[in-house]
Write a structure and sequence with these properties.
This protein has 273 residues and is α/β, with parallel strands linked by helices. Helix content is 36%, strand content 19%.
Amino acid sequence: MSNTDTPGLDAEVLLRHTVGLDRVALFAHFTDPIIAEHLETYRALLRERSRGTPVAYLTGEREFMGHSFAVGPGVLVPRPETEILVEWAIAWLQHHEASTVIDVGTGSGAIALSIASAMGNNWPGQVIAVDVSPDAIAMVGRNRERLGLQDRVQVQLGSLLSWLDEPVDLVLANLPYLRPDQIAENPDLRAEPLLALDGGPDGLDLIRQLLSDAPPVMQPGGALGLEIDPAQRDAVTELAHKLFPGSVVHVLQDLAVFDRHVVIQTVGPGYPP
């Protein structure tokens, strides 16, 4: 299988999806013959994968923070590195319980729904998942129902923070941050929505706008967390210091030790974190 760095794993995942077996059961029955219908389906999935279609789009789901999220061509496939931002947010909320959390550019809803699930039924805060894409909003609704979080996560169609009419405590965002040339050079991204990838000439168009819009709508002592391209660390941290004077700005690394997230703790009650 070409056009993938993990052909063996991809083939296994697609086979498990085709025959409806988990990994243990698959290997327990590995020598069993595959029925003709399954074989035809499996070959079709392998062809699609070889053309660059993400495995998650072919199976219709992706695991994130221990949950299975429905995904499709209208939303970005959740990545493991984003779990670092979610874990940081959950830790922050342990010390700021009655908080309003906004997940900007929510996509499949992975960030918002994972946080709501982790905080539990008795958590006094609220989570709002917002996206400019109707396809994304539909997918969030599907995942919200799938995880039984209809009463704990609000869904909002809107652009960045322009729709807000009251202050919030925590803003999280995995916005488009790639340059057009980065997208063009990566065939693995061809099937994913350009709206969720293209951050403009330097990749920072939406991140810059969000950081500019955030100060007036942030509660004192609130926080903001962003996923970035590692090469954007200096530009984003410099902008964060400029727009949030006196705040503490941290950079979080992903499991590959790349600078992946910038988090800002603003001045006010609960400062520093």
